[in-house]
């Protein structure tokens, strides 16, 4: 039941974000209730044919997905700018040692699920994603260091739900409560993938200026806030918006920022929506 209530809470959060005109509206990330079922994934079946040629062959490869209309898209999609082809918002990093070609339901992708940091399976991506891009590290990877970095992230992925939370905000929706990359209690999918590579020693957050943030729901909330408090000066409001977004881009890591990382090279992509 606890897991069900988490999903309901995420749905409520998504609905509140969609209808919220204030950047300071209180919406809790999760609701705690007794437990009944296995940890659910945030992604569901896509309604599209399975991506049968999706490769799972390089340890540490980063997977991005987008174009869907599932719960994950509702929660994450509002913040992601989705300004580039594919509308990517979700992500994860492959631990090839956990991948089992004979059991595609085996958890092998370090990402975020309803409890916070967690795992998805190969089938979650083969069956459950609409648009997918795979990006491989374009540098020589030290296997020992990679294993050690993955072990660190495994620790967080294996934490119980009472030891972490899923979310972009701490406690409630507030533009000043954005979860930073360094936070170790709140997790979202692309932050988990970033954490693995950052622990390895490579920062895959590009902070690229090529991304158009004006298409992001976060930008919309920030714009509404500063135009409200600086209603008397458009110049002052625009300056405050620019300063906020410049600072926040450094604090968070979203799919398109990883997509434009100079340390990763696209090796596979399918865009169907």
Question: Layout of helices and strands, plus pairs?
Answer:
Elements: H1 2-19, E1 62-66, H2 71-76, E2 88-94, E3 107-113, E4 116-121, H3 122-128, E5 131-137, H4 143-157, E6 165-166, E7 186-187, H5 189-200, H6 217-229, H7 234-251, H8 255-259, E8 264-270
Parallel strand pairs: 6-7
Antiparallel strand pairs: 1-2, 1-5, 2-3, 3-4, 5-8
Description:
The protein is an alpha+beta fold and 273 residues long. The chain has one domain (41-270): endopeptidase domain like (from Nostoc punctiforme) (endopeptidase fold (from Nostoc punctiforme)). Helix content is 34%, strand content 16%. A hairpin with a 2-residue loop joins strand 3 and strand 4.
How would a crystallographer describe the biggest sheet?
Answer: 6 strands, antiparallel
Secondary-structure-based class equals alpha+beta
Could you name the CATH topology?
Answer: endopeptidase fold (from Nostoc punctiforme)
Number of domains: 1
Second CATH tier, the architecture:
Alpha-Beta Complex
List descriptors.
273 residues, alpha+beta, endopeptidase fold (from Nostoc punctiforme), six-stranded antiparallel sheet, two-stranded parallel ribbon, 8 helices, 34% helix
Short description:
This protein is α+β, with helices and mostly antiparallel strands. The protein has eight helices and eight strands, in the order αβαβββαβαββααααβ.
